[in-house]
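Give me structure tokens for this 150-residue protein.
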Amino acid sequence: MPTSHALEAQDGMMNLDQGSYMLLSSATGAFSCRYSTIPRTWNHIDRPHVALLLLRNGGVVYVLLSEPTRDDHASRPWLAVADLDRLPNGSVIEVRYSSTRFSYYRKDDRVWTKVAESISPFFIDIFSGGTAPVSIEAFEMYSDAEVSMT
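Here you go.
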């Protein structure tokens, strides 16, 4: 079981502000699934992770819920992830698959709703009304979120 670590946004994490977090927590979402898709193997190039996003002092704090682990029987390190079912309803998690591919899920009762994704370090596509996303600029860390329809 991984140990949780609270971090400010740093390399390998999206830079989100309070407005972006509020959009993630209230988005309708594209679809819901019983389990969020999380990376199972770890490598030093993509550096995948799972992090809980928390709103603190007007900013977003990331609590890492995963850590790389090596098993004597496994050929590659795998990613150990905390039990996500224990998180309270309304929790928002960031799942990083690679340096450019992120997904965001919100826990709604017993399912995870995919509320956003990103394939660029500069924009997040938030599913505020189904599968047609609203793009938010994630580059400027503490500015108001700029929203544009795509």
